[in-house]
Amino acid sequence: MTARRLAVLVVAAALLAACHSGSGDGADPPSSTTSTTAAKTTTSSATTRTTTTAKPGAGPTQGFASAKAAIDHFVAAWQAGDEAGAQVGASAIAVHNVFTQPGPGFALYGCDTGEFATSTCNYRNRATNGYASITAEKAPIGWIVTEVYMTIDN
Question: Which of 11, 25, 37, 120 has its CA 20 to 30 A from that of 82?
């Protein structure tokens, strides 16, 4: 036998053996593929906002005829330091959040129209660089203050 013929026979035998081993007799364990994925890391800079939750308390007991009336009542109580008065027409979390800063010095910066059953008025304090965003929503009892976001730019 020549070397060439011997090489052809060896290759044929190898192919025959490879085809026979994949016949599904269960003798060989299933093959598996492993892949590794690296996590992508991104870095960004942003203003930190802290969210707090107030202790459960009584909800608002009075609604107002307009969003502006609800917010005006709320702001007047805040600027007077009257938490109970603010609670009359506002959620407990709104009252908690607004009293994180003293009210005196905040002035109305502007309000939206309230045409979609929600309205927001913005207040700022130029002396402290404080900012308050106060939102009222239309509820079954009337307009009530539901959210307050407070910030101070340092």
Answer: 120
Give the pLDDT of residue 152.
78
pLDDT in tens, 11-29: 444 444 444 444 444 444 4
The number of folded domains in the chain is 1
Domain that holds residue 148: 67-152
Contact indicator for 124, 132 with CB cutoff of 8 Å? yes
| pLDDT digits 0-9 by tens, 46-87 | 333 333 444 445 678 899 999 999 999 999 999 999 999 999
- The residue assigned the tokens 């045409």 is 115
Dihedral angle over CA of 17, 23, 27, 32, nearest 10: 100
* 36 in any annotated domain: no
Q: Which residue has the higher pLDDT, 55 or 142?
A: 142
Q: Is 21 helix (H, G, I), strand (E, B) or coil?
A: helix
Nearest to 130 by CA among 96, 111, 107: 107
- Residue 35 belongs to a domain: no
Residue 90: give its domain's CATH number. 3.10.450
